[in-house]
Every structure is written in C-alpha cells, then in structure tokens.
## 1
Amino acid sequence: MANFTISRCNFPFIFLLSSFYFLTLTLIAEPISSSGPKPLNNSSNPNFDSEITLLGDAALAGGGSYVNLTRPWVSSSGLLLRRKPFKFLDGNLSNPTSFSTEFAFSMTPDGGDGLLLVFAPGDLGSRLSGKGGPFGIKGDNRFLGIEFDTDMNGDMNDLNANHIGVDVGSFVSLAVGNVSKLNLVLNSGEKLKCWIDYDASSKRLEIRLGKMDESRPYAPISAYGIDMSGMWRGEDVYVGISSSNSNGNSSQISSVYSWNFRLRNVPKSMHSLPVNPRGYLDGHGESLSVQKRGVCPLTVLAGMIFVTGCGALVAFVMLFLWAIIISRHTEFPAEFCPKPAEFRYEKIDVVVEKDVDGIKY
C-alpha cells in the first residue's frame, strides 16, 4: 500500500516533467514560426501602404506601430510582402515603369544577415525560408535585391560588415556602398531611413541612406545602371522586404517602421533612352546599350540655326578685334599750323626806247 501511495503522488510531477522535456525538444528542433500570411491593417497603421502581408516570423510589435521581421533565434526569417504585383512594361511592351520607395528600419547588434529589398517574378512568398539562403530568400536567379548587409563574406564581394549592395541573380554584389562613410552603422539599433529610386528613362537605380529624422540626402550612397524592364518585360513582379538569421549564432531582430512604394509610368515618347530588352545589364553595371533613333527634322533645323548663330558671333568678334589691331598700328600726319610771313614789294620802272628805225628796245 505504501508503494502504491508514493507512485500516485509522484505521477503528476513525472507527467509534467516529461511534458516539459518533450516541449523543449520540439522548440529546439524547430522554432515557432507563423508562416501563414497575415494581412497588415493599413487603417490602424498609416505608416505602411495597403496591400501588405506579413509572412514567416514577421509580426506586429509595439502595439501594432511597427513590424519585427525576425525573432531572436537561429533560422528565423520573415517577409513584408506587397501582395499586389506590377509590371515593368505594360501590355503593349511600350511604357516602362519607374518606381520610388522609402522605408525606415533598425537592426539589433546581434549577429544576422541584415535586410533585403527584393524584386522577383512569380510567388515571392514561396521563396521565404530561414535555411534556404541569405536574407531568408531561396529559389532561382531571377531576382533583384538591395541588401543592407551586416555580415562580412568575402565570397559575396562584401566590402565590410556595414555596407549596401546591389544583387542581380545572386548575392554576389555588383555595386557596393560603404555605410561607414556616412558615419552610420546598420546594426546599431538606431532607426535609419532608405530612399530607393529607379528611373526607366535613364535606366538608373539610386540608393540613399540617412537617419530616420533627417531629410533625404542629395547624393546617393550607391548608383547602378540596369534596365529592369528588360529583365521581366510584361511579367508580374512582386516586391518585399525580408530578413533572416541563418548563421549559427544569429539572434538579430530586424524591424521595419514604415514602408511606402510608388509606381510611375512615363510615355515612351518622353524617354531619353529607348528600352533595349536584350541589354538590361552590362558587365560592370555602368554603361547601357542604346538603340539608334531616326533623325528629326526639327533637330536638324535647330542645329542649323545654332551653327549659323555661332558663325555670326565668331565673325563679329573677329571684325571687332581686327578693328582694334589696325587702329593701333596706323600713323596719321601731324596737323600743319601755318605761320605768317613778311613780303616786301619793290617798284620797277621799265623804260622803252626806240631806235632810229622805230624798233622798240
């Protein structure tokens, strides 16, 4: 009887201990992740655009005032996705699309991959994976990313552990901006703000960075030449902000405080550079192939008027200089001043004589 009583008393304790043990093993094996899409209520948070969804570990924080993309454990990843796609070329493949976006963010000093603004065709949400690659993005090479990297990896052309890079098709950065030159640290926990602009007419991508309470900088920290219209033509393209902790000791928390994304469509007739879908990217990301355009009669007329005006101006200047030079080397005779002179007059008597023959002498 005594043994039976003891076993009954210990049973609840053993059961609780066993439950706690199995729960601990489950948490260690696979962190809690809310992978299902969660729409962000824009009416309660005007700092974010509408049509935004939270995926992975991304969740509202601070009473719904901002979003944490990651949680402080290994293999945590999250995505802030704009679930409404857009096209870089319209249905007629004529009017390229430009965009401007700005977002405020912060990253804790703990180890982590950093932050990535990513563009990709198809289902971007299906590429989210904490173990699939840097910044939690996996899949094929058809993507464009602007990385805010807090990890130094020489194989990825990383400048340091505090840089911005432009990635096309891989995470080997083709253009790198040194954030340290701005006296900023990406993973200092300070709130920073980024402005990214793409102009379809010049095919130029510009990235600016500053503190959250400062105005937009004049000079970009990095600029890159690329024809995004040629990359995806009329395909549906999605854009999102992702982050992950893929390293063994990563516990970084990446937070986003605001995000606005705007599209601009400019008629093809106003583009300074025509679209060349086959030359969307050159070897160094600086020069772009340009198609030849027909000669415009108005352009020819304007050129002739300009040349004529320049010729007339040059002729006038030469005549003016010639007149100055000639006037310096011409000698004029001195002015003659007449002086009074005295004259003396004498009276001469002429005597006429006749000879005998009557001839006068």
## 2
Amino acid sequence: MSFFISFFLVSFLFSSPCLSTRTTPIFSSKPINPTNYHKIQGTWHEFEKFAGANKGNQINGISELKKYFHRFGYLKRMDNLNFTDLFDDHLEHALIKYQEKLGLSVTGKLDDNTVSQIISPRCGVSDSTPKLFMHAKRNYVFFTGKPRWSRSIPITLTYAFSPENVINSLSMSETKDAFQRAFNHWASVIPVTFLESNDYGFADIKIGFYKGEHGDGEPFDGVLGVLAHAFSPETGRFHLDAAETWSVDFEREESDVAIDLESVATHEIGHLLGLAHTSVQEAVMFPSLKPREMKVNLKMDDIKGIQALYGSNPNFSYQALSESDTSTNNGVNLRKRPLTWSDFILVLVLWLSM
C-alpha cells in the first residue's frame, strides 16, 4: 500500500498541469490582504476620507472625486462650470451609475465597498458605453460603432515596442515574453494571429511606457492610478504608465505596489480588438486590477464578446474550456514549476512516516 501511495505522490509532483508557458505561480508569496490593499498610498488614496459622506454634505476636495467620475464617463460637466465640493444630485446619480456598472450594491452613497473600488488602480479607458450594444443576457460591451479590425478573416496583426519609451526594471526579453503570453490568450479563442515586428513605425499595434503627459491627451498620474490605456480599432496605440512597479514574477518582486504586466497587457489588448469594459468582476475586461493580483485567463464573458466581433478560432472548444476551468479551480491556471528539493524531502518524509 505504501508503495502505491508514494508512487501517486511522485507522479503528482511530476505531472503538474501546464496550461501556460509562464513559470510564475498565480499567487504571490507576499499577497496583500484584499481588505487592506487600499491603505497603500496610491494616486486616489485620499478619496478614502469621503467614506460615509451623504448627499447635501459640503466636503473639501470632493470636487476631485467629481473629476474622477467625469474622466471615466459617469458625470458630465454642467455648463462648462467647475465642479464644486457639494455632494449634490449629480454626484449621487454618478455614484448610482458607477455602482450599477461595476456590480456593487446600488446605494447612491459613498459606502466602504464603493470607495474601495474607486481607489483601486485601473485602466484609463472610460467606462461610458452606448446603450445600443447592451443586452440583458450579456455583460460584454463594444465601443461606439462596434469597431473591429476590418481585414479578412483570418487576420494577422503585427505589434512592436517603442525603442525609446521603455522601462529598466524589467529586461526587454521579460517584457516581450509577458506580452507574447497576453496576445496568445486572445489568439487562442479568435482567428487572429499576432506577430512581433521590429518596425515600430509600420506595426499595427505600437506599445510603449510613458510618464505623465505624453501627447495623446490622456496623461498618466503616478503610482496605482491609471495603469495603462489602449485605443479602439484600428488605432493600435497601447500606452502603459512607466511610473508603476511592473512585475512578471511576484516571487522575485516583493513591492506592495507591484502590478502584473501580463494581466494589464491582456486587458488592454481586449480594447485594441474592440471590447469595452464589462461589469463582470471576474472577467479580464473588468476595469480595475489590485496590486499583486493576476488576472490573465479569459472568462466566458470575454470570450463571447470577442468572438461576436471576430468569430471563433477553429481550434477553440467551449467543452475544452469548461474542462480546463474544472481542472484548474474555476479557470485559475496552475503554472508548471520545476521540482525542488522540498518536493523530494516531502515525499521522503511521507514515505518514512508510513
């Protein structure tokens, strides 16, 4: 009996499922408590002081919160006037729309959960979406006009990295590997192939890291604010905030403000292909991403949305996706890792204890 148990343990260690070429564990060795991550001093951390505010309150600085809602498509600037520090009907209406969009309890108030979501780092693309493409049976959303790359199926798109706008915290090979994995997530479900090019000027998709104002009217705002933004088809511009602590390995990068590069890249590629923000919190196209969080696996909402634009990859199977979800804990990829001495010691200890 002990032989069979040991054989099973060894077989398990040597046969860890490999659903991705990435060797980094999906979870960080230094995770941040989800309820405490907002204590990190990010761009919007001062909004935390508004928790519990009610309509009718005059609060110093709440005009900045109105600017936030204006930026992301929830609040219009009335008659070109500056926003005031009054918690008024307009702010309440913006809160309700925000809570509805992001799957929060609809209270119209600055409750703790809403404030926690507001201060989360996120994509810079507006959440504003046309009603024409909303439907009761789906959550995925397209940009106005439902743009997509208009080439004949199957499509090949090239991408290139700006030679000037780079980061030094990661090697170029690490950066390129993260982006290749991100592109592969989408290519596996639609008939689109992504090829890296050395010709930045003529590539379909142009990728670069920038700080502050960088010429597109959408300036970056520092650590844990807007992480990145990309433009709808067929613009092809993909910009990331160089001020962030970008990571491809949470075991190596221990910073509390580390942001997973592959997760952000996967999200922004969805925009480049034509998807807007969804209200499904588990989906890749949900607008926010917490520090030290990974979200790289396309969910059904992401897949159905992108296939509505481009059709299905001939090799894609919903049945295979379902089986993968079941075997990997509801869609979480288990990264194959090299065996360590700890693994062998574990087997030896179990053997001796029998």
